[in-house]
Specification:
10 strands; Lipocalin; 177 residues; ten-stranded antiparallel barrel; globular; mainly beta
């Protein structure tokens, strides 16, 4: 069971950034680690739990999210940076499974976000759209849908809570489903 309070990650970080305002509520996640339980439907289909941690990089101009599935089979890094021309929060997601995505976040007035990303390197999924928000009890909930050549299909839903447990060791499986 996850612990109740977030902790600083093991990577040396600066919790201060002159750019924090550009990232809205996402900046509040810096220096925290989260444990995410998949929805019941996802768990019934074998989806492992997930760990996630947030940091600044490149002098606080880039927000970095690192996640690893609890079984260590898969992980990814997301790099988020404000696009100075458009004002959007653009990102690239690089995975241990050899595919990547790129897209943009839209921050909403209710402290939620929406995102769309194009997928490169998979034959069955060409896009992902997702939403996320903080709940009143301090959890982070994310939901996704996958765009296939035949249309949109349900993705994954996770509920994350702060944890002090260490990130799992990543031992990636190179099989892409």
């Amino acid at each position: 069971m996850p612990d109740a309070e977030p902790v600083s990650t093991s990577v040396p970080i600066s919790e201060e950034s002159a750019f924090a305002a550009d990232f809205g509520m996402l900046a509040d996640l810096v220096g925290t680690r989260w444990y995410g339980e998949p929805s019941q439907a996802d768990a019934e289909h074998g989806q492992p739990a997930d760990y996630s941690e947030w940091n600044w990089d490149l002098g606080g101009s880039v927000l970095v999210n690192r996640h690893v599935l609890a079984d260590g089979s898969y992980g990814g890094l997301t790099y988020v940076q404000k696009n100075q021309n458009s004002g959007t929060l653009d990102y690239v997601y690089i995975t241990s499974a050899g595919f990547r995505t790129s897209g943009s976040f839209t921050l909403n007035e209710d402290n939620s976000w929406t995102a769309y990303e194009e997928v490169t390197g998979l034959s069955d999924i060409i896009g992902v759209r997702s939403t996320g928000h903080m709940t009143e009890d301090g959890a982070l909930v994310s939901e996704s849908e996958f765009e296939t050549r035949d249309g949109w299909v349900p993705g994954h839903t996770f509920r994350y809570e702060p944890t002090s447990k260490p990130m799992p060791k990543l031992v990636p499986s190179l099989e892409i489903e």
